[in-house]
Amino acid sequence: MDRAELIQLLQPFKDKCAEKDRSLIDICIKEAFPGDHSTSYIIQVKAYWIDGMYCSEAIDFLVDTLWETTDEETRKKVFSIQVLNSKDEFHCRSEAVTMTKS
Q: Distances from the Cα of 56 to the Cαs of 2, 8, 61, 68, 101, in angstroms?
């Protein structure tokens, strides 16, 4: 799965965030291991609503919404989620978010 395909598969995630009044300004996909697009990706999300929220609350919302809107194969391609505030600064990171059920 390449970056373009993953962006398409994440569109329902972005739409659901907007539906829940937590629109994402931007989603950026970066290779978890630069140069190797056959593995997983880091998803960076930027949103205004994140500025007034605890990191854990933002990550919980994003991971729950990702589970709601994507299949297991798509989630396997997500290495981590990085959350940027409205100033493009890191708000928090989900270093070890499990994207598949145990």
A: 29, 26, 9, 18, 20
For 97, the enclosing helix (H) or strand (E) is none
Which of the two residues, 60 and 39, has the higher pLDDT score?
Answer: 60
CA 70 to chain centre: 11
Strand pairing report for 41-46 and 78-84: parallel
Structure token pair of residue 62: 């994003």
Tell me if residue 5 falls in helix, strand or coil: helix
Average pLDDT for 26-39: 85
45 closest CA partner among 77, 98, 96, 90:
90
Q: What is the pLDDT of residue 6?
A: 93
DSSP one-letter code for 50: G
Query: Which domains, ranges and CATH numbers included, belong to the chain?
Result: 3-94 (3.30.300)
89 pLDDT above the threshold of 60: yes
Q: Which pair of structure tokens corresponds to residue 95?
A: 């270093």
